């Protein structure tokens, strides 16, 4: 049987989240002043829009009220999606980060910043950007080689799929 409050809450709330087509990524209960805050992070392969988040929030709130799982004290419920620089910890996170730039900390030491090209059960294929005019290179990383991985924010990307698609459409027109 689960012993921590977070584990009990996960067991209670995960079926509701998955029934909405989402994955329950994280649950955290924090104290903020005199109040407690229950933070629930959800995601899916296609992301989660504001309407979906609102629906999940209402369902979770009703279940929490019905079961009194948070006890008698006041608390705030916050439901959201992972941040832009999310930590990749599960296989599905790497799949969802395909075509994104990721900073890897390697188990044997060192760091690598590369774009995820493809993910399978054993590891990932990445593209390491070229430096000082050199071409990008590809590399294979097995999951055991990765100590930590975090998505990086890119404000402008010259070779994005959308810009390639737009260029192709302009050429065809």
Describe the structure in your own words:
This protein has 173 residues and is α+β, with helices and mostly antiparallel strands. Helices cover 29% and strands 34% of the residues. The chain is built from four helices and eight strands, in the order αββαβαβββββα. The protein has helices at 5-19, 50-67, 91-96, 161-172, and strands spanning 23-32, 35-43, 75-80, 101-106, 111-119, 123-128, 137-142, 146-151. Strands 7-6-5-4-8 form a five-stranded antiparallel beta sheet. A hairpin with a 4-residue loop joins strand 4 (101-106) and strand 5 (111-119). Helix 1 (5-19) packs across helix 2. The chain is elongated. Residues 163-171 have low confidence and may be disordered.
SSE layout and pairings?
Blueprint: H1 5-19, E1 23-32, E2 35-43, H2 50-67, E3 75-80, H3 91-96, E4 101-106, E5 111-119, E6 123-128, E7 137-142, E8 146-151, H4 161-172
Parallel strand pairs: 2-3
Antiparallel strand pairs: 1-2, 4-5, 4-8, 5-6, 6-7
Got a strand count? 8
The number of helices is 4
Instruction: Give the terminus-to-terminus CA distance.
Output: 63 Å
What is the string of helix and strand elements? HEEHEHEEEEEH
Radius of gyration: 20 Å
Largest sheet: 5 strands, antiparallel
- Catalogue the unreliable spans: 163-171
Q: How much strand?
A: 25-35%
**Can you tell me the overall shape?**
elongated
Helix proportion range:
25-40%
